[in-house]
Amino acid sequence: MSSKRYKKLPEKTKELKSEVIDKLLPLVKKNCTTKFDESIDLSIQINNKQKKGEISLRTVVNLPGGSGKKVKVAVVCEEAKIKIAKDAGADLVGGDDLIEKIKNEQLNFDKLISTPSMMLKLSKLGKILGPKGLMPNPKLGTVNEDIKKAVTDAKSGQAEIRNDKDGNIGLSIGKKSFSDSNLIKNYNAIIETLEKEKSNNTLKGDLIKSTFITSSMGVSYKIKLQKNI
To answer: How much is the pTM?
Structure first.
């Protein structure tokens, strides 16, 4: 049974003509009628079916307007870099001692960063880290010699771009409390990252089939793409 709040939301918004994100944000925010700071989310469908097989995207984008999330970052590194990691703001830092905790499935962190030389030991923990999406990956900047940059990027706000087998990508561009300008900055950063991925993969045709925007407990609107990707 639908709540009174839900019944007050507009109906059949997916049938409306697509509009640029600048004009949709006020509508999406107006629908944020819950008591918590709702997330503003994108649902993107890409053209991942290509003649040479399916395209699988996995990359990370730095969000210039921030993510609105507190990310607990763990770093596995050599002793010489422990202070660098701590000074950069890492929540958990260690070498073999931290690896031992991970072996015992003590995964009290949101993101794991490793130096390249420590990855040999961490790679053996794929059955523990893999299913939770915590295995460090060079494509995501989480296998990095520059620990300071990796931690700073993770803390300042990032979003992972990864499509499922049907070509769907879901990610957040921030919170209702964010200014429209910061939400738009984050949206543009995601679109620009997808443009680069299209070039890197030499894809044929448009990369994006459709893009919708919604809030955690709201309804979705179709975004009109201003760039052909």
So the answer is: 0.83
